[in-house]
Every structure is written in C-alpha cells, then in structure tokens.
Amino acid sequence: MAATHRSSAFLRPEHLVPVRNLSLRAKLIVEGMIAGLHRSPYHGFSAEFREYRPYLPGESARAIDWRKYAKCDRTVVRLFDDETNLYAHLLVDKSASMGFASKGVVSKFEYARTLAASLCWILVRQRDAVGLCAFDQAASLYLPPRSTNTQLKLILSQLQRLGPGNQTRCGDAIHEVARTLGKRGMCIVISDFLDDAESVIRGLRHLRFKRQDVLAFMVLDPAEIAFRARGPVRMRDMESGRDVLIDGRTAAHFLSEGMAGHRRTIENACRELKIDLEVVSTDEPFARFLLRALEKRRRMY
Amino acid sequence: MGLSFFRPEYLWGALILLLPLALHLFSRRRAPRIEFPSLRFLHATAVRTSQRRNLQRVLLLLARLLIAGLIVALFAKPFDRSNLLDVIRDPSLSVLWWIDPTLSMDYRESGVSRLQRGHDLLDSLRKSIAPAAEVFEYREAQREFVAEAGNDDASSASSVRCGPARADQVLRAAGSRVRRLGRRSLLVVVSDFQDDGPQGALSAMSTWLADGSPPVSTVCVSVSPRQPWNARLSGATPSMENEGILTAKVRAWGRDLHETELVAVMDGTRVGARSVSAAKDAETTVRVDLAQTRTSTRHAGYAELRVDDPFVWDNTDYFVAGQRTARRVLIVGDQRRCTPILAAFGALGANAWSPVLCREPAAVSPTDLDSADIIVLNGVDACESALRPLTRGRSLSPKAIVFALSTDSTSRGSCLAQEVFAHLGGNRDARSVVSTIPRALSLPDTVSALWRGFPSLRDREVAVRGFYSRIPGRPLLVMESGEPFAAISRDSTGHAWIVLASELGICESNNLCETGFFVPFLDRLSRHALSAVRTATWRVVAGTAFPNPCAGTRRSATLLTSEGRVVAEWGSGPLVQIDKPGLYLVKPEGEADYWIAAGVDSTESRCVYRMPNVPASIQSTVRCMRDDEFTRFISAGGSLGMVQGFWALILLLLLAEVLLWVEAFKNVPRRNKSTG
C-alpha cells in the first residue's frame, strides 16, 4: 500500500486513514470469481444459512442434516450462501465542464479522480475487482476489472494521465458502457451530469437493467450551486464555447434555478431506479465527504 | 414657448446632475469574462430579461437625472417668455405702471379706497418682479414715466385728484418711454375703469387697444368694487302738515338695499324711523309715520338714510365756509313788498351780506348799481332808465342779478321782463301764467353743488299760483309740473342772471316768503349767482381746465381759498385749472374780487364699471384681469402654468421610477438557498 501511495498523488494518507476500517459493500448480489465480502447468487460455504433441499442420491452423506432427519425422518441437505468478490466499474466523466474550478477550490475533475482513486484503493484492498472507464462524448478509456495491486497502479496511472476533454454526452457514454457489462456488479459513476437529464436517466436505467449496483456521485462546484455576480458579465460555455453578455443577477437567477431543477430531476430518477446518488460540492473537504459517504452506505447495508 | 428663469443663478445647481452621471459612468465596469461549465440553463428568456434590466437601469438613471434637473429648474423659478403674465418674471424687463388717480378711485369698501388697493397691488408687484427689473412710474407733473428710486413710498402717499384721468396722455407717454428704452416692457394700468366719459381711463384704454397694435405689452388690473353701490334719498322732508306722514323716494344703485334705516328728525328729535329695502337700480317710495311733537308744524326737519356712503365727497365748504368779506346787496322793487327780502338778508348776518339797500326802481342811481355786488330785482315791471346799464351793456362791472318776475302785470308781461329776455337771448313769447292749482317746488337733485346738503324743502309747503312760463337759462329749480322756477344764464357783459319765474317777497302769486324755505333759498341763490359771475357760461369743475377770465386783459389774478390761502396766480394764459372742489376768491388786478365755486364732475359718482375691450388679435399681449386674479398670480411666486407643468412632470417621473422599481423587483432573482 505504501508503494501505491507513493505512486499516486491522489491517494493521500489524510484521505484514507479515516476510512481504512470501512469497506464498500455492494447492496445487491454480485457475481465474483473468488470468495469475498459480497453476497453471491450461488450456494457456497459461508456461515449464512439459506435453505434446505432433499438429499439426492450420489451426494456426499456429510451434507445430510441428521438433526432434521431425526425430527422429520427425511434426508435433507443444508445449503449456505456463497460470498464472492465484486466486479466494480469506475465511470469517470472527463468532459470539459469537469475542468471548472471556481476561486479557492479544486476543479471538479480533480475532485472526481481523487474520489475514483480512493474508491479504487478501497475496493482493491477488499479484494474486489476494479475497472475504469473515462468518458466525455463517448467512452475513451476502458480498463477491465481486476483485483490486483497492479490494477490499482494501472488505474492510478491512467487517472494521472487523464484531463478534461470535449463536450459531454454523459447519457450516451453511460449507455455505451452499460452495453458491455455482463456479470452483476457495481458501477460507480462520478460526473457532474451536465447533460440532457433524459439522456442521463436513460443511461442510468440501462445500468440498472444490467443488474448493476449503481453508485452515482454528482460533483458540483459551489458556483454552479449558487452563482453570484453583479453587473454585466460575459459568460462563456466551457463545452460549446458559446458567449453570452448578460446581467450578473439575471444570470445568477437563471443558472441557480436551472441547476436546482436539473438536480431535482436527477435525484428523483435515481430514487426511482434505486440508485444511491451523492451530490458533493467541491468546497467540501474530501476526507469528510468520503467518510460521510462510506458511513452512510455502511449504515444502510 | 420661450423658457426662461427668474433666478438663473440657481441653474448652477444643475451641476449636481454630474454626480449621479459620473457615478453611473465610473461604476460602469467592463463586463468580466467568466468561463462556466454549462450555459444550458441560460436560454433566450434570460438574455431578454437581462436586456430589459439594462434598459430599465438606463431609464432609471434618466428619470433620476430628469427629476433632479426639474427640481433645480423649479428652484430657478421658470417662466414662459412668450406668456404675457410670465413676462413679469423676466429680469430684463421694464415695468411701467400707472394708477388711475381720479376721484372715483376714492370709492371705499370696508374702509379701504380703490386707490389704496391699487397701491397695495403695486407694492406686491414690486416685491415679485426680478430685482434687476427697472420700474417706471407715471408722474403727473412731468407727464412722463420716470424711474423709481428704490421702493420709496412716495407714490403710495399720493391721493385722488379731481378731473379727468387723462389716460390718453399716460398711454402716449408709455409708448414714447418704451421706444426710448428699446427693451421688453410691460405696462401695468391699475384703474377702476369707470365709465366716466371720453377722457376717462376706460375710454382711453379702449381707444388705444382698438388700434390693434399697442406698442407695449399691457396688463389692465381692475380694482372696481365687486358690488358698486350708492343710495339716494329724495323728497324727504319731515313735516306735520301731511297728516304726520313722511313720503320719500329711495333709489339704490348697483345692489339691493336691505333693511336700511331711514330716520326722520325734527328739531333735533327723532320723530320717525322705518326700515327700507330697495331693489337694485330701482327707486322706491317710502312712507314713514311721524310722531306728534310740540314743534311748530311749519318748522321743517330732515330725513336721512343710515348707510355708509361708499363714495365720499361733499361740497360743504361751498356753502359753509363763509366769505371773508360781506357782499353788498341792492334790492330794487316796492319797498313794502321787498320787506321779507330785506329781513332775510338781515337774518343771514351782517358778516355775509352788508350793507343791504332797498330802492324803488325809479330811485336807483348808477352809483347804487355800481357799488352792489348782487342786485335783486323784485317785481319790477317798468323799464326804468336807471336799470338800463344792466341790459344795455354799459360799462358796469359784472354783477350777480336775481330777477324775480312779477306776475301781476298784463298778459303781455312786463316791459323789463321782455327786455331782459331779449338781452339774455331767451324766448320773447314768455307769458305769465296764473294757475288755479298751486304748484309746489321740488329740488332737481340733492347732489349738485347748489343743492347738496340743502337743509329742508317740505313738500307742498311752497305754493306757486302765478309764474312765468319758459324763462330763459339753465334750470336750477323746477316746479312739480316740470316747468323751471329758477334758471341761470350769463349775458355778454359778464352779468350772471338768475331769473325766478315768480316774485319774491310779499305777493299773491306765491307764498315763498312765508315758508322756512325762503331764507336758505335766497341765501343759496345769491351765493350761487355771485359764484356764477363771469363763470356762468363755463362750469368750473375741479381738475378740469376752463377759460382763463384774465385772458386778453393783460392783468393777472390771484386765486385764494375761502380761508385766504393763495392757491394760484392766473396770468394771461388761455386756460386755468382748479385742482380741488370748493369756494375760491378771485382777486383780479384793478377789479373787484369775486367768488367762484369749483364743483366735482357728477360722472365720478356713477357706479358703472367695465373692462376695456381687448380685440382678439392682441389678446396675447394685452390682458385684463381683476385685482384678486392679479394678486393670485403675483403671490404664486412663479408662472402658474409652467410651474404646475414641472410639478406634473416630476410626479410622472416619480411614478415611472416606482413602476421601474416594481418591475425591477419582479425580475430580481431570489437567492437560491438550496446548496445541496
């Protein structure tokens, strides 16, 4: 782990120490290759009893529950849940809008890849397989999930190399990623979701259709939540390059109202799709946010 | 419309407008360039809203600048140069003013004369015009508008004068002054605009304006009384003869006379009273029951209306102020029949009439005639040679002659009467008439110089049975039938003749000498005849020029008041003038002194007032208004129309500002508190 820390600027002890004893558990059943922390759809040898089934000839007699046989004179076999590891995909938005940083705070992309690196470290540490997908208009980078430390290094190095790119088409990109997913697993989407709300919801729905446990992080800058300006301002769209000369107070009114409406739409959709959505402002200390998010998930599941 | 300002120095205050303008310009930052993740929420509505807010901001700035500018302009007192009334505010203005000084301006309402009201108006005007404006007032002596030296009250101290207004001279002087000044001028004429004849202010102003091109902007301020009025009582002589009933006529001019007390007094005792009401401009007859007293029924009293006379002038001095020297009287006639005349002059006092001689016609000597100041010819029929100088133009100083005709002669009339009628140019066919019905006398008026203040004339006390009809001259006293009883005329030699239609003294044709009317009647007639010597053909009206009696004689005369104070020296000029009404003594060089009476033009008491007619073509430069309207304008402190317009504009701008604020408030984005 020390080696891993040294290799990445995103994994900092002050971020990870508070969460070292926490784990990121899937709330749904996932299909893994090896034993792990997460519930598997298969019967296994964990301590969790699942059901009885009739003994089949040819099976080992060790599996027969003799106590049950003594009570009801039937030979039945006790089945236990299997516990497996997790196949997780980190979907990181690298569109141009993610490069925005208001005064005094880090950019949204910086916050997002720190979050991605931290989650990646947590998942690898609990022997889950982690993959990475970066997207803007489309998925531009894809690393299939693996649970090795090498994968962690690889993901960190890739995150290091990533930077804000083109105009976002978040919904389409998620949609594209969802098509490639086979097993049940976890998808962690880190984005500002500044795309058409319907498109975004359609992508998220596709992930849920693929039986993915979706965890969404909506990373916003404080200026996006409450824009403040007075007098005339010339505003430039970072993605489209559109210029608008506008009164600051009017712009603040429309931007704040628009963003609030967009957020409400996304939140309502996530609630319907049983997706955990965490909205985070980049002015919130990262360690505190990470601890808050993991604690919340631990309490829930 | 030409906008100008009464206090232009206040316009420097407009520099304050630079402050908000500078604040606006300096606070106008260049729009900072801001990169934002996504402007998908800034749709067209936002841009339009922003543009509207920018426009509102500019409009707000303009509204505030305008409001501040208008307030500064209000402080500077705006006025419209093209508006005649606003011209008064012009600092480069010359104001020429004239107050009508005629006697009618002495009309009093609530104790304040119209003249004083006019001066009050001009005092207000002086305070209202710009300090730099020049003010000229008309001076009668110089017949010129002269510049006022500060706000002296010399003009305010002036009083009314008699005579015509001579407004035409004033207007000519105003025209010439304006031409000399060569700058914008305003003529302010303050008058009651009484309809008092062709020389009055009303006529002169109307004529001046009728030309259609007055050389100067003019404001005519009328100070005529709101309800001009006057009242006259006539024929009211209390007497117990008429079954103790007083009958009087009351005439009310200008307004109704309500519940006014008419009081009858006899021997200083109030013997009757009644409340009188008379309709406007109508005459009403009043009957008053008199209380029985011990007083002799033959003694007359007087009656009076207890009203305040709004137009005060009287001729008391004319009769009351006595002559300094007694006048010599010669009575020619039958001595027995003339005894009452002799007694009457004696009763009037030796200070007034002395000596009083009585001669038979045949015994009159030229010395008697020459030494007498007044000659009373009573019932003389024959054309005595001694009396020829009176009718033949012989060298005899002008005399006052009272000729009482005898009706005891034949129907052809007396010889002397025929000769006198011919001498006076009268009707030669005058006949004596003997009436079976006694004729009473009535005073033609109670306001003329002769009859004003006459003590008493009881109705039907005097009975005239025989009289001459159609006597020559201007009637002074008439009978009930309308025929003259006394008439005055002047012959070519300067004698003043008062011809009486009937005899004086003891006679059968009338009972004059038996009545209380006789003594004052004789006194007044004699004094009037004396005053009319040499002036019989021209009536002396105070303030009006009349022919100089010394003209062409190479002699001068001194004019003295009844108190002996020298008033004027008359040279050989064609016209002379007496300024105040009253009795004056004329002392010509080398001739006998004589008295003349200066009266007042009766038109001055006419309660008829009109505004001058202003043709429509000059209504922009000439305005006529009442005094209260003028006062309102002056006290407004600025042009009413323009100031009100400014205030209306300010209110509109304030309303616009409020609406812009409300609109801006609607568009102000509320702070979004949901920060996630």
Strand order of the largest sheet of chain B: 18-17-19-20-26-25-24-22
Largest sheet of chain B: 8 strands, mixed
> What do we call the CATH topology of the largest domain in chain B?
Rossmann fold
CATH class of the largest domain in chain B: Alpha Beta
The parts of chain A where pLDDT drops under 50 for at least 5 residues are: 1-7
Helix content of chain A: 25-40%
Tell me the CATH architecture of the largest domain in chain A: 3-Layer(aba) Sandwich
Note the beta-strand portion of chain B.
Answer: 25-35%
Radius of gyration of chain B: 38 Å
Number of strands of chain B: 33
Ends distance of chain B: 65 Å
CATH architecture of the largest domain in chain B, please? 3-Layer(aba) Sandwich
What global shape of chain A is seen? elongated
Q: What structural class do the secondary elements of chain A suggest?
A: alpha/beta
Q: What's the assembly state of these chains? A: heterodimer
Write the element-wise H/E pattern of chain A from the N-terminal end onward.
HHEHEEHEEHHEHEHEEHEH
Secondary structure layout plus pairing:
The complex is a heterodimer of chains A (301) and B (676).
Chain A: H1 2-7, H2 13-16, E1 35-54, H3 66-72, E2 76-84, E3 87-93, H4 108-125, E4 129-135, E5 139-146, H5 149-161, H6 170-180, E6 186-191, H7 197-209, E7 213-220, H8 222-225, E8 232-237, E9 243-247, H9 248-273, E10 276-281, H10 286-300
Parallel strand pairs in A: 3-4, 3-6, 6-7, 7-10
Antiparallel strand pairs in A: 1-2, 4-5, 8-9
Chain B: E1 3-5, H1 18-26, E2 33-36, H2 44-75, E3 78-80, E4 94-99, E5 108-109, E6 112-113, H3 114-128, E7 134-139, E8 144-147, H4 167-181, E9 185-191, H5 201-210, E10 217-222, E11 230-234, E12 245-253, E13 257-266, E14 269-278, E15 282-289, E16 302-305, H6 316-320, E17 327-333, H7 339-348, E18 353-359, H8 366-371, E19 374-378, H9 388-392, E20 400-404, H10 415-423, E21 432-439, E22 441-442, E23 464-468, E24 474-479, E25 484-490, E26 496-500, H11 518-532, E27 545-547, E28 557-561, E29 566-570, E30 575-577, E31 582-588, E32 594-598, E33 622-626, H12 627-635, H13 640-667
Helix pairs in contact in B: 2-13, 3-12, 7-11
